[in-house]
Amino acid sequence: MPRELHLSVALDADGPHPATHWADLVGLAEQGALDFVTLGDSLAPPADDSRGRLDAVAVLARVAPLTSRIGLVPTVTTTHTEPFHTSTALATLDFVSEGRAGWLVDVSTTESEALAVGRRPTAPADELWAEAAEAAALAARLWDSWEDDAEIRDAATGRFIDRDRLHYIDFEGPHFSVRGPSIVPRPPQGRPPVAVVLDRHVADARWELAARHADIVLLDADRPATARRARTALLSRAAGTGRDPGELRVLVRVAVALHKGAPQPLPPTGTPRFTGTAPHLATLLADWHEAAGTDGFHLLTAFAPADLPAIAEGLVPTLRRHNLFRTAYTGRTLRDHLGLPRPASRYARRTETVR
Fold it and tell me: Which residues contact 247 (CB under 8 A, 6 or more apart)?
């Protein structure tokens, strides 16, 4: 039997659309049983010809009750935000979606973003990605700071939590100092999966973030052999940090236009670009999947309202006929879709050792 692949799609926050717009797009992706959608976001001020953008976490929190299975992964920059606030927002999204949240980590490198926020000056990209890695480590500790059974909710005694099962994380790093614990109970997934975009040809601090903290890597690679080498190097690096490399999913980013007369050009990437029909795209993905040995694909659409129906109604059925994609969701959480275990709280393990 062929090895099944994972499939996801990127949505851009391209204007202040109503909830029905986002619900329709995410609903189409869910109709195809895709693993997740990502929603772009940025702190950059709107350009003169832009209608602005909405906050990605807030949009997906609104969409969550209108969907039931698909993973919801907003982009959140770590540069001009506090990890405590990011971790609580994503934990809240995980509760609202009943275990379907993720986090696409990004940084803000431009002077316009720094001036718009006014929190700090610009910094070199490597420094910002090192800070992002620390923010991801800190968020994981905050998500772990409540043990799974810390909530008592005993009306008779008036006790809401077992304080012995809440933990100060006492995090001290070069960029952040946080005592904790979180103000939000441990998320349904334990830790929402962390994703990062990785360029095979750019050896920057993102590789360290990916190896140590990412659950999903969205890889830019121009050829299957390049993708295979990148995945091998990344898994080796992850193993060197003490992680189980089998718990890292590598999806190749592919820019696609599956309709004629696209109103927008394909996104510029150093990764495969495809214009044509859904069955032909299925052939391309099948060939790549076999040759590259990666775990699946993250599709960057030229125009999501037109491309998503072709993905759900054309691409996915073709992949299913070749036994390359699930016929339906078999789990409820994003970790279920990705075949990732739910991690235990590091503090609970420490408590059990003492007892």
Answer: 215, 340, 341
Rg (CA), the chain: 20
Token pair of 109 as six digits: 């490198």
Lowest mean pLDDT among 83-92, 119-128, 295-304, 324-333: 119-128
Question: Is the pTM value of this prediction over 0.70?
Answer: yes
The whole-number pLDDT of residue 354 equals: 39
Apex CA 33: angle with CA 29 and CA 37, to 5°?
A: 40
